[in-house]
Amino acid sequence: MGLLVGLSGGIATGKSSVARMLVELGALVIDADAIVHELQAPGQPLLQEIARAFGPGILRPDGSLDRAALGDVVFRDPGARSRLGALTHPPVIAEMRRRAEAAQARGAEVVVLDIPLLFEGKKAGTGSAVAFDFDLTVLVYAPPALQVERQIARNGYARDEAERRVAAQMPIEEKKALADRVIDNSGSLEETFRQVRALYAELSARAAAAAP
Question: Which one of 2.40.10.10, 3.55.40.20, 3.40.50.300, 3.40.50.720 gives the CATH number of domain 3-210?
Answer without folding.
Answer: 3.40.50.300
